[in-house]
Write a structure and sequence with these properties.
The chain is mainly alpha-helical. It contains 27 helices and 8 strands. It starts with 5 loop residues before the first helix and ends in a 6-residue tail after the last helix.
């Protein structure tokens, strides 16, 4: 018997090690180059997102180091880059803000606790293989949530661009603080913020064309465009330092950041804080998972690959645990950084490891260089990265297509804007689940008749069909469970009362893929009531797994009628004259 290779044994425990099999010099070079490009983007973004989360700037750097190592070991995507992202940072700010903490150290500890709780939720979902948990968030609700969150992020970043004191977690609160703080607007902050934003937008839209016309090699031009945020940070920091803009004009700057390795410690907070963070952590883990899987799947499709949702739960859970233990806050797979990582040529998650090493070097040795970095420039970095995410067209399209989906989306949109991130998202999820329950509590049903000249049966209200005078063919288009079990009982009772000529009722089951214990009890009750009224109950076209359950429960033996493989077989047995007439054969 052939023994298992050591790498294969290790890969069963740490799936990411499987990438090392066949790893060669070409892959090493591609991953190293991609990591450099990604790190150049991540450093300014990480600092900016930490400030958005209401945390010291170094928290963003810490959240971009250990999580990359952890995801590389446990994740399933080849190019997904995890770290701080805008929406999760906003949700973190809302969660930490509700605790009313003032000490930066306490905020960092609470953010670490939030990441640890998020990790626990993700790992728990992964342990029970609940990758489908993302389905609780419908696409319209996710789009509406991202749009509303983007509006809140833009509004919150105006404080740095305008240099005024703004606070609040909802649009009315931010608007009120904006109006109150307007007299204190700083001209220098406006100039720096708008100039930074203009440079970033121009670098993305106009710079590629200018470099191409100047004859710049494509690779160099692409590198300059991607390095634009880092170039901006370096130039503006030098200007702020040279002219001492903080002392001369009051321009808000990042200030002193600690140098050295990220701290390794379990976050220590009070029991009440843990309890207060459970709800936000659940929502953050859900939103983070949805965003990460969406990004991972879209990038994997380009390379005809696939990612494993349950593995992603474990990978993200490990990444968040790593963030919690090293001074970070909740992380997930980001779209912009993952696209950069992919287009820069990353071949394996080892590119993420290299990126983490580069950022670790920045955190250990280069943090003093960010002392004079204006917060207005970091705000511009966020605005340039997210402004396109605010898209009301998706929500409007959902409303036009289906009022129920549109209602859930608009309630999410307005809930996030006017009630807050957590309440708004909870409202959207609750409405979505409620809409599903409402639709399945009264599922679509139809009486069927035979299409002339065929063995097919269709809805009598939609097709010209032939109906049996004493066999009632009933199709229910839904799984049968506790929410609609009583509905089915009432429906059959009403049919029996309104059609006294009926001697047989055939329940057609092709759309029924699940029958729970409540529905099983209802089927038994229906069978007994019909038998008392002299009507036999039959089933047709029952799916195999459903039939297995009903047989095991003994329902097939209890039926007053029979179970038929096809609906045609049922009608051919119960009313042969009508089926022959439908087939164009003269009755005797």
């Amino acid at each position: 018997m052939r023994s298992e290779a050591p790498l294969d044994r290790a890969a069963r425990l740490l799936p990411g090690l499987g990438w090392l099999k066949g790893y060669d010099r070409a892959s090493l070079g591609a991953d190293a180059l991609a990591s450099l490009v990604t790190a150049i983007l991540l450093v300014p973004q990480s600092l900016a997102y930490a400030l958005l989360a209401g945390l010291p700037a170094q928290a963003g750097l810490y959240a971009s180091i250990a999580p990359l190592f952890a995801y590389a070991l446990f994740g399933s995507s080849r190019v997904l880059a995890v770290g701080p992202v805008a929406v999760i940072s906003l949700m973190t700010a809302a969660a930490i803000g509700s605790l009313e903490l003032t000490d930066p150290g306490e905020k960092m500890a609470a953010a670490g606790a939030l990441a640890l709780l998020s990790s626990a939720f993700l790992l728990l979902f992964g342990l029970f293989r609940l990758g489908s948990v993302a389905n609780f968030l419908s696409r319209p609700v996710v789009h509406a949530f991202i749009t509303a969150s983007t509006v809140l992020i833009i509004a919150s970043q105006l404080r740095h661009v305008l240099g005024i004191d703004m606070h609040g977690a909802t649009l009315p609160e931010l608007t009120l603080s904006f109006l109150t703080g307007m007299p204190g607007v700083q001209l220098t902050a406006i100039v720096v913020g708008l100039a930074s934003l203009g440079f970033l937008l121009a670098a993305r839209s106009a710079l590629p064309g200018l470099l191409a016309r100047a004859g710049t090699p494509a690779a160099l031009a692409d590198g300059l465009v991607r390095a634009a945020p880092a170039i901006l940070v370096a130039v503006v920091t030098l200007i702020a330092w040279r002219f001492d803009l903080n002392a001369a004009t009051g321009l808000s700057i990042v200030g002193e950041l600690p140098s050295g390795l990220p701290p390794f410690a379990v976050p220590v907070v009070e029991l009440e804080t843990w309890r207060a963070l459970i709800g936000p952590a659940a929502l953050i883990s859900l939103i983070g998972f949805v965003e990460s899987v969406s990004v991972g799947q879209s990038l994997a499709a380009k390379h005809r690959e696939h990612i494993l949702p349950n593995r992603e739960l474990v990978g993200l859970g490990a990444a968040n645990a790593a963030a919690a233990l090293t001074g970070g806050y909740p992380v997930t797979g980001g779209f912009a950084r993952s696209v950069v990582n992919d287009t820069a040529g990353a071949r394996t998650p080892i590119a993420g490891v290299f990126t983490a090493i580069l950022i670790l070097g920045v955190a250990a040795f280069l943090t003093p260089a960010f002392y004079h970095l204006p917060k207005a420039t970091l705000a511009a970095t966020i605005l340039a990265a997210i402004w396109k995410l605010a898209d009301i067209k998706e929500t409007w399209a959902a409303w036009r297509y289906a009022r129920s989906d549109g209602a859930a989306a608009f309630l999410t949109l307005f809930g996030v804007l006017f009630l807050g991130v957590e309440l708004g998202l909870t409202l959207g999820v609750a409405v979505s689940v409620g809409m599903i329950l409402q639709r399945t509590m009264q599922p679509h049903w139809a009486r069927l008749g035979q299409v002339p000249g065929t063995h097919h049966f269709r809805n009598i209200d939609r097709h010209d069909v032939i109906v049996s005078p004493h066999v009632y063919s009933l199709r229910v288009d839904s799984a049968l469970y506790f929410a609609n079990a009583r509905f089915l009982e009432d429906l059959v009772s009403r049919i029996a009362a309104q059609h006294p000529e009926t001697t047989d009722i055939v329940l057609m089951f092709p759309a029924v893929n699940f029958v729970d214990a409540s529905a099983l009890g209802s089927l038994r009750e229906i069978n007994a009531r019909l038998a008392e009224a002299g009507i036999r109950l039959h089933l047709s076209e029952v799916k195999g797994p459903v039939a297995d359950g009903l047989i095991q429960a003994g329902l097939f033996d209890e039926l007053s009628g029979n179970v038929f493989l096809s609906h045609y077989a049922a009608l051919r047995t119960l009313d042969p004259k009508t089926t022959l007439r439908a087939e164009g054969v003269a009755s005797s």
